[in-house]
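can u pls check wat happens w/ magnesium ion
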Amino acid sequence: MIKALIFDVDGTLSDTERDGHRPAFNQAFKQTGLDWRWDVALYGELLAVTGGKERIRFFIERYKPALKNDVNLADMIAELHQAKTRIYTELLATGKIPLRPGVKRLLQEAKEAGLKLAIATTTTPENVTALLNYTLGEDSLNWFEVIAAGDIVPAKKPAPDIYLCALKKLQLSADECLAFEDSENGLKSSLGAGIKTVITINDYTVNHDFTGAALVLSDLGEPENPCQVLHGSLYRERYLSLLGLAKL
Ligand code: XBP
Ligand code: MG
């Protein structure tokens, strides 16, 4: 009996990475006087590491090794990341980053059916509240019983910590929940917590290994804009609804 839906944020609620986080990182580098530029391909490589601060450190270790032993490295990364988060939340305020197909519909269906809603994400909490606020309105923050985000757990995805934290706060067991993810790191995290998972892919994750996912879809779909089923079955449905979830 499913009692809660737990959503990843980046790539799942909204396609935020290529045209949201990536330009925000680049603008923060520019503002700091650094000539670093993460193009679409390089960012796709760096996405192997979750967490913006961890991603910057990964970039430095791989591409700017002269900096990696700098005594102020942690402070420099933290300052860069704070600047990036400011820029990213301002970008969200422009409304240029919409929710993915079917997300608002499924959230509303679940809410009306009395299911609990939760978020389990690697991204910074301010990014979550900004995305929800600018896409669904301020009241939507109250839709989610739990928002587990960013540094509140010691290990980020693919570690299961953030999903285990969400389960604990929900006071539910893994088999009472369903997770929605977009990436291999995310799937490893939710499966690591024992939670059945639906994947919606995006440009960066289309070739990821989604072994163990209950469903792999192009997106959650809309009645007038059906989704593609890449693994599993929606039976005769053309988009994912609560009925389809009940059959998983
Ligand atoms: C995706 C991430 C985040 C974002 C950047 O999180 O790994 O790090 O790429 O956001 P998820 P921050 O898919 O779990 O939502 O810079 O705030 O980390
Ligand atoms: Mg994601």
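The CA atoms of residues 183 and 206 lie 9 Å apart.
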